[in-house]
Specification:
The protein has about 200 residues and is of the alpha/beta class. It contains 8 helices and 8 strands. Helix 5 links the parallel strand 4 and strand 5. One of its GO terms (molecular function) is arylformamidase activity.
Length: about 200
């Protein structure tokens, strides 16, 4: 894997490439970052993936992620962003070299802002590219698993740009949890489906 650090200036360039500006963000927005980590992880040779999984059992190895900075924190605060999430194992680059601006400490402990990690954004990124639309309605709810305590949120977004179909975008391991507890799709997602 890599320790590539994505600076705030690069994030602004991506926003612009998507036909948006920083003025388009509104209070309560959730920002998703796709680094391609899930795709890379799933397509690496099995033995390399097994070695990486073993390393994670003992330590937190280097990871691609957002570069912590005062500018980024100021942007998130001033725009009143509700949450951030990424497809990497660590939202911010690891190891964190900017200790003063360590995002987990500022966002989670300081502001109570949720940080999502290991979100499987592959299908969503394809849908966004096809429609050249990078804004959408997004909901998040805990898995509805009677008798179990499960913390992997279920992410849902209606694909209004492509019809009225509700498309579920799962965290990387949610389907494995569904199989492990022998839950049906309707049991897990009934709360989300009823909401629409």
């Amino acid at each position: 894997m890599t320790t590539h650090s994505v600076p705030f200036t690069e994030l602004l360039e991506v926003i612009q490439d998507q036909g948006l500006s920083s003025d388009d963000f509104r209070a309560g927005d959730i920002i998703l970052f796709r680094f391609g980590y899930i795709s890379q992880y799933e397509n690496m040779p099995e033995e390399k993936r097994a070695r990486l999984d073993e390393v994670y059992k003992r330590q937190k190895p280097e990871n691609i992620g957002i570069e912590p900075s005062e500018e980024l924190l100021r942007f998130l605060w001033e725009k009143r962003i509700a949450a951030v999430a990424a497809d990497s194992r660590s939202f911010e680059v690891w190891p964190c070299t900017e200790i003063e601006w360590h995002l987990h400490e500022w966002l989670l402990a300081g502001w109570g802002m949720p940080i999502g990690e290991l979100f499987d954004l592959e299908e969503l990124s394809i849908a966004c590219d096809e429609a050249y639309r990078y804004t959408f309605f997004l909901t998040s709810s805990p898995m509805n698993a009677p008798g179990h305590v499960l913390y992997n949120p279920s992410i849902s977004t209606p694909r209004s740009a492509y019809g009225n179909t509700l498309v579920e975008f799962y965290l990387h391991r949610e389907q494995e949890i569904v199989k492990q507890y022998d839950l049906s799709f309707a049991e897990v997602n009934s709360d989300v489906i009823q909401a629409f």
